[in-house]
Amino acid sequence: MPASDVQTDQATDQPADQPAILVDHVSKIFGSRRAVDDLSLSIPHGAFLSIFGPNGAGKTTLLRMLATLSRPSEGRIVLGGIDIKEHPEQAREHVGLISHRSMLYDDLTAYENLMIAARLYGVENPDARVRKLLDAVELSHRSMDVVRTFSRGMTQRISIARALVADPDLVLLDEPYSGLDPHAVDVFDQIIATVREGRTFVMVSHDMDKGLAACSHVLVMARGRKAAFAKKEEIDFDAFSAFYKKTVGMGVA
Amino acid sequence: MARSVQVKTPSTFTEYKILLGKDLRREFRTKEMLTSMGIYSILVLVVYGAALSQSSQGVDVLQMSGGLLWALIVFTSLLGLNRSFEHEKENGCLDGLLLVPMDRSVIFLAKATSNLLFMLVVEVIAVPLYFFFFLTGAPVSDSWPLLVWPLIVGTIGMAGIGTLLSTITVNTRGKDVMLAVLFIPLIFPLLYACVSAATVVLVGGDWQTTYLTSLALAGGYDVIMLLLSWVLYGYVISA
Amino acid sequence: MAQTNKNRRGQMPSRGQTASRGQTALSTADKIAPVILVLGAILSVLGFVLAFTIAPPVNGARVDGIAIIGDQMVGNQMLFSQKIFYFHMPVAITSFLALGVAAFYEIRYLMTKDSDYDLKAHLATEVSLVFVVMVMFSGEMWERFEWGVWWTWDPRLTTYFILMLLVIGYFVLRAAVDDPEKRASYASVFGIITFIDVPICFMITRLVPSSVHPTIFRTDSGLSTEMMIPLMCAMFGMLFISYGLFRWRLRTERAQEELDRMKQTLDE
Lengths: 253, 239, 268
Description:
The complex is a heterotrimer. By secondary structure, chain A is α/β, with parallel strands linked by helices. Chain A has 8 helices and 10 strands. Chain A has helices at residues 59-66, 88-92, 110-121, 126-136, 152-163, 182-195, 208-214, 237-252; strands spanning 21-30, 33-43, 48-52, 74-79, 82-83, 95-99, 170-174, 200-204, 217-222, 225-231. In chain A, strands 6-7-8-3-9-10 form a 6-stranded mixed β-sheet, sandwiched between helices. In chain A, helix 5 packs parallel to helix 6. By secondary structure, chain B is mainly alpha-helical. Chain B contains 9 helices and no strands. By secondary structure, chain C is mainly alpha-helical. Chain C has one domain (30-257). In chain C, strand 1 (67-69) and strand 2 (72-74) form a beta hairpin. The B-C interface holds B 63, 161, 164-165, 168, 171-175, 178, 181-182, 184-186, 188-190, 192-193, 196, 199-200, 203, 209-210, 213-214, 217-218, 220-221, 224-225, 228-229, 232, 235-236, 239 and C 110, 158, 162, 165-166, 168-169, 172-173, 176-179, 181-182, 184-186, 188-190, 192-194, 196-197, 200-201, 203-205, 207-212.
């Protein structure tokens, strides 16, 4: 794909035969530490991958590499046919990240925050797009209030809207449930369900039940390596929990 | 599948305007940088008042005033620069900016510009106050309006290198001290040249050569350091 | 991309990511490092001895008639303290050279993100710090005995003082960042700026005309052969010592890294 090829229509550079995410022998090394160690994966379009593993297993490192926030030391990552090392900017157009940190400016209003994002991504008719998103997360009535006055759950909803502003194909969720009360978790799930269609999701979460409920694929990581990878329908849940306890136990020891 | 949202990558200048606008709007709403820097500069002047109280007014202070003025500016700027990335760090906003498909040096240019503007606004208040408190009785040379050039050149250099360094120090432990430790030795040459230029226009006499040499050297420092910061910024911010 | 570049020209030990960096067999550079260190020490000592024996005493601060430096009268003196010069100049050059080597590795690090370059840059800066402190010390002695003042903001002294602060700042910065990748990038960027800032500092402090006390411009007058021999001995001695120190530190650090890696493997 030539770098000069300005993609205005995102549909054209998404060949159907390309996996949404291709992780090819990726490692993240620093000094004597291997945060991610020779990991390979292929995820089809429209899948929902849940990544589990103990602390320090390299889940967040992998997610940050997928988000182009961190560069792999070895191997390559291809998102929907775009190599993120060669065309990081093109890849970024297709990625949205929802993290436990809101990425919003506390002193600006919800509308202003979203407008900044929309204009930076170059969304055409940003005002209409932002209003539509605010409607979708049911916060139109608070759009002119500064984010500082919002509850954690409301902030998280604006954060979703921010991630979706340029209509990404790939949505990355980094511990999205942390700090949310049960009601906010339900609202979060509902909103994700409405935007689920036609997008690929990757979620890192400590919440086993939530993660398993939503996903189509499961990846278990331990010490930076792939401990298990399977489609959800292939998983025997009892065996899986026993296995997971074992890997996590091993990881923590 | 066809996407419902049309995206057209904005020009670098548009991105710059958006980022700068964001900083200015935040500041306009909270006024945290300007108030803290403004109050701090007045407090430094109060300390000067005590420090100079035993010196004979007029000529003595005039000889030192270039240096004192720059000490005021350095410490005040340090305070502002320290805070300039605080709100970007708070909610991980910096990650949000890095996710946007744009050149990272735009972030540097926008931040350096907003820091420069805040520092200049504070100088517009602090420098006249300095004159009012310490130089009203002194035989200030007629060339004093030329003070504005060293102020501008010096502030540009400090804003540029300061923006790069505060991006580094916001991620370190003990960041307030850290910025000073890195910033002050690095700007020493700039400070040296600016103090010289400021002093000669205030004292007067045969000032032209000294003034122009100092100003040219300060300008050279600015050009080299700004280019260097601009080139290296991508490595710092995406680390 | 697991290229294992074994011993590039015998200087660069294998720096492939997957290959073990702590060598089981010593590389050529590591083998000759102790020899060079000893040779450097001998040369330096020889240089000093020669400086006191064959180098003739020369005029001290070459000022015309009598000058005032820092409120002290300084005449045309024949000073024993001149001998400090044979130590001072080689050390000063070596310290700046070490900083240049560090800057080179810092640039390489930013280009490749290979932590081995960061280690080398770190160690080169460490060596540089040792020499910078020696420069400050010998410079201070020089100043006291030759110029008769404890401190003056002379361009060279000022520059070295700032340089010392910057190098110390480099280590303070390293100590204040936990994430190894961030630490390496920040330190590299700061190191490169330092390397550029120091000559600018010298230029500006020298060229800005100062109204308060005129800078004494001293051009080091031509050196006779008797002076060149001890100077060159000390010069090469210091260079060898710095290289030996660098390799020695590199070897211990790599052994440490290897140990960490083995510990980690054992844990699993």
